[in-house]
TrEMBL record:
InterPro entries noted in UniProt: Adenine_glyco (IPR005019), DNA-3mA_glycosylase (IPR052891), DNA_glycosylase (IPR011257)
Pfam families the UniProt entry points to: Adenine_glyco
Extent of Low complexity compositional bias: 136-147
Protein name: DNA-3-methyladenine glycosylase I
Superkingdom as given in the UniProt entry: Bacteria
Region Disordered, annotated ranges: 130-150
């Protein structure tokens, strides 16, 4: 399936065809470069929590995630202990999954440790594909790539959790490591890729 025309007459990736939170995310954010450690840690964390769930569920809980994870400040989240994890497990505003909560804390600690090297943002961007995909249909869209597999392997080596190749491919799409929009989507070629 190629881009679909919405009720507003605009062509979009099919998953963002109807009005609502998914369309807003598609039009305003998906595929745009983000900057800074907290922005990268937020997207990495949310992609991990999304695994097995719909992205709209995560978007609808995003403000609560930001609140309970201190705006994704790695220094703060890295200090979370068992008591904090237990508290988060009782908060109905977020996805209450013990392993994913533990991974968020682990990943904050790994992010802090990465500062002694290149840092989370530079590490992720170093896996940008030389030949970015340009799918015209959803059938041509990938869910992993050699780069997402390599990024997953490297992050695991650096102490990160819940960073499988599919999750890392979704992260790379979301933060504009490459333009993820279908050819023909009004957002294709307009996202802010940055350098």
């Amino acid at each position: 399936m190629g881009p679909v025309t919405g009720d507003d007459g605009i062509d979009r990736c099919p998953w963002a065809g109807g009005p609502g939170v998914m369309r807003d995310y598609h039009d305003r954010e998906w595929g745009n470069r983000v900057h800074g450690e907290a922005a990268y840690l937020e997207r990495l964390t949310l992609e991990a929590f999304q695994s097995g769930l719909s992205w709209s569920t995560i978007l609808n809980k995003r403000e609560a995630f930001r609140e309970v994870f201190a705006g994704f400040d790695a220094d703060t989240v890295a200090t979370y202990d068992e008591g904090d994890a237990a508290r988060l497990m009782t908060d109905p505003r977020i996805v209450r999954n013990r392993l994913k909560i533990a991974a968020a804390i682990t990943n904050a600690r790994a992010t802090v440790a990465l500062r002694e090297q290149e840092g989370l943002e530079a590490l992720v961007l170093s896996f940008r594909p030389e030949q970015p995909p340009a799918p015209a249909t959803t059938e041509e869209m990938a869910t992993t790539s050699p780069e997402s597999k390599a990024l997953s392997k490297e992050l695991k080596k650096r102490g990160f959790a819940f960073v499988g190749p599919t999750t890392m491919f979704a992260l790379m799409e979301a933060i504009g490591v490459f333009d993820p929009h279908l050819v023909g989507c009004h957002r294709r070629g307009t996202a802010t890729m940055g350098g």
